[in-house]
Amino acid sequence: MILRAAVTGVLLVLALPAFAQEADSEAFFPQQMNARQLLLQCSSSSMTASGRERQRYCDGFISGIEESLRLAAPLHAKQLICAPEGVRAKQLSRAFISFANSHQADLVKPAAAVVVDALSSTYPCP
């Protein structure tokens, strides 16, 4: 629980400027984003500039969580995820998309929490 709060805090500080405005000019705050909203970002079309921007945000959001978990691992008794060295942000995003599509009931949960669940499911530690 403490780890999730720490990860969320780090992500909020890093991600807020990137999502200060949506396409419709409404203020958007990542700490209020649920997994369904992140899934929409991640699943955006790469055929448009705004779609590619949303995909980049998704990749950054998810890889930020992975990095936060990796960096926080020495502080905790149990490492939550063991992604292989060299895993790319796009692969992490695909893992989230796959997990989110098969766990529809979780989409109302905070995005960061579901990303942690997705990554720990996809890249479990021995």
In short:
This protein has 126 residues and is mainly alpha-helical. It contains 5 helices and no strands. Helix content is 57%, strand content 0%.
Write structural notes for this entry:
The chain is mainly alpha-helical and 126 residues long. The chain has helices spanning 2-15, 35-42, 49-72, 89-102, 111-122.
Q: What is the tally of helical segments?
A: 5
How far apart lie the N and C ends?
21 Å
- Helix-strand category: mainly alpha
Strand fraction equals: under 5%
Name the average pLDDT: 82
Query: From N to C, what is the helix and strand string?
Result: HHHHH
- The level of helicity is 55-70%
> How many beta strands in the DSSP annotation?
0
Catalogue the unreliable spans.
Answer: 5-25
Cα-based radius of gyration, to the nearest Å: 14 Å
User: Sheet bearing the most strands, described?
Assistant: none
